[in-house]
């Protein structure tokens, strides 16, 4: 995408549809060390997220691994290793 002289950016239709963004929707950009994150602002809900750290602190409690450890999770994703002696 290119930024116009006025600072406007055209968002691809596929992204707008996936995020439910339409005419009048509010979005924000959160600056991070790696670049920027587009954030759809939900009206009438909780306070809008304004920084990456704010977003990360809210998102970190949304995953429930059901007691799985990191090793369990990796094994679930990759399958059991067949290069280890099964003794």
Automatic annotation (TrEMBL):
It comes from the Bacteria. GO terms for molecular function: DNA binding. Residues 1-46 form the SpoVT-AbrB domain. InterPro entries: SpoVT-AbrB_dom (IPR007159), SpoVT-AbrB_sf (IPR037914). This is AbrB/SpoV domain-containing protein. The lineage of its organism: Bacteria, Pseudomonadati, Pseudomonadota, Alphaproteobacteria, Hyphomicrobiales.
């Amino acid at each position: 995408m290119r930024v116009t002289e006025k600072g406007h950016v055209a968002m691809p239709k596929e992204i707008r549809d996936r995020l439910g963004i339409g005419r009048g929707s509010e979005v924000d950009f959160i600056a991070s060390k790696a670049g920027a994150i587009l954030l759809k602002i939900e009206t009438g809900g909780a306070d809008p997220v304004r920084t990456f750290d704010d977003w990360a602190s809210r998102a970190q409690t949304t995953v429930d691994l059901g007691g799985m450890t990191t090793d369990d999770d990796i094994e679930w994703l990759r399958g059991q290793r067949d290069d280890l002696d099964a003794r």
